[in-house]
Amino acid sequence: MAVREKIIAYVEKQSPVYRQIALDIHARPEVSNYEFYACDRLSQQLREEGFQVTVDVAGHRTGFAGVYRAEKPGPVLVFLAEYDALAGLGHGCGHNLFGPTSLLAAAALRQVLDHVGGEIRVYGTPGEEGGENGSAKGSFVREGYLQDVDAALCVHPGDRHEASSRNLACLPIDIAFRGKPAHAAAAPETGINALDALILTYNGINALRQHVTGDVRIHGIITHGGDAPNIVPEYAAGKFYLRAATVPRLEALYQRVERIVEGAALMTGAKSHMQPYQNRIDNMVPTASFDAVYGQELALLGETMHLPEEGCGIGSSDVGNVSQVVLTIQPTICITDGPTPWHTEQSKAAAKSEKGLASIALGAKALALTALDLIENPALLAKIKAEHAEAVKQQ
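Given the sequence above, the corresponding structure tokens read:
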């Protein structure tokens, strides 16, 4: 059997296993740093597929790394796996499909790797949606898991087949103030109101929005505003997302918000505290020629990939951290019958629908065959890597 046909046949044979894994993960949604069931189920399946697997990696207890290395030399290719859910909603972003798709792609490619050469890795990266110890791909980059990698591949559920697109860099931050409690009626003059400082900060950020570029997004909530109406609030806190098209713009935005926080502290006398509460999410650096290889494989499977609209998307993903250092694709794969709002009950239903489950085999075939193209054509890989390096410089 030819190499390509062997990959496709293996995907079709194993597809029922991975569909069931996707349904089981969908039924047990877990948020960042608590994806114990998903991590165990996926890592155990990877072991059964012949990979050496380590759990609790890169500082993430629900992260894993699976490796299969052929004796014949070749490129190091990584399939990225996500499996976290949204707090309060569940799998409204389809990550129950994401992880199984990447695993099946890696498992299918493994069937021919001893013949074609190279090394396959699967990185299980927790908390793409953020949260406790969230955005794990930033940790994988920081801890050196991508240093010797030639390319990274994954596909994200969506409402159409679309090439990898630009998105926004994002920094989730905690802002808190400490003041001095006092009886709000009997002795308010002796207190320092931490809530006033936080509200001044909130309003200062609202004023800042008029004077930023169109790519900038800032949004936040107050998580603690005091304990009782008759006590001057001693402590107040909020969580904010800062977003911008590139990391340098994001860093500049952080400094401007930091000055607002410092000003609110000066005005009220409260002590301020501002810091990131998880990894920074870097902007995605797409490489059109890499997506084109994926698009060609998708076409051979009977599907059409669309190009994204010009400009940045409005969301953020820690796949951007990987794309800053390694050639990366994250196209979307259609799991719905039309445009669908994400992070909703509709997208949650799509993630366990027949069309959603069918996307696992389609995505696994397209990813595995794309990876095979890179292995079999070193000149193509070198050309795409050069394009990616230039794109990183020019962003």
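The longest strand covers residues 60-69. Try to locate this feature in the token string yourself.
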